[in-house]
Amino acid sequence: MSEYVVELKNATKRFPGVVALKNMQLSVKPGEILGLIGENGAGKSTLIKVLTGVHQADEGQIFVDGVEQHFKDPNDSAAAGIACVYQELNIEKLLSITDNIFINKWIKKGTLLDYPTMHKKAKEV
Ligand SMILES: Nc1ncnc2c1ncn2[C@@H]1O[C@H](COP(=O)(O)OP(=O)(O)OP(=O)(O)O)[C@@H](O)[C@H]1O
Ligand SMILES: [Mg+2]
């Protein structure tokens, strides 16, 4: 068992014309609360997006409980226990509450969307 629940090692992320993260390290112990502080454009959001599979780092590794992970999207990271609660929620106004809650993680019955179950679960929350 690793001493850390989440580790980011040597993470580098480049966007066209800018190195957003350069060789970043982050280690989180179980139960630990960390603050990430930096000036505008320092790379805070990029770091969180790399950890939650929104972006993939060009270099570096992510470990959860000592096991290396490769997150291709936020559902992947959520399955491993890493999720982000964004400060500003983007609500899709033309979609129903159920659709907003289940966007990108729809419950299916066979190949069809299972709206009765999704509506029921949406009401619960
Ligand atoms: N999708 C993107 N495409 C191109 N460049 C990006 C993208 N996202 C971030 N950047 C650039 O990467 C750098 C780091 O940005 P990031 O948003 O991670 O910083 P931040 O620390 O979250 O800043 P802020 O405090 O303003 O939220 C900046 O130079 C930014 O312009
Ligand atoms: Mg930011």
Helix content: 10-25%
Placed side by side, the strands forming the largest sheet appear as 2-1-3-4
Task: Kindly report the CATH topology of the largest domain.
Answer: Rossmann fold
- The number of strands is 6
What count of helical segments does DSSP give? 4
Q: Describe the largest sheet.
A: 4 strands, antiparallel
Rounded mean pLDDT score: 95
Q: Write out the CATH superfamily name of the largest domain.
A: P-loop containing nucleotide triphosphate hydrolases
- Globally, the shape reads globular
Return the string of H and E elements: EEHEEHHEEH
Low-confidence stretches at least 5 residues in length (pLDDT < 50)? none
Distinct small molecules bound, one entry per kind: adenosine-5'-triphosphate, magnesium ion
Structural class: alpha+beta
CATH architecture of the largest domain: 3-Layer(aba) Sandwich
The separation of the N and C termini measures 34 Å
Given this structure, which CATH class of the largest domain is correct? Answer: Alpha Beta
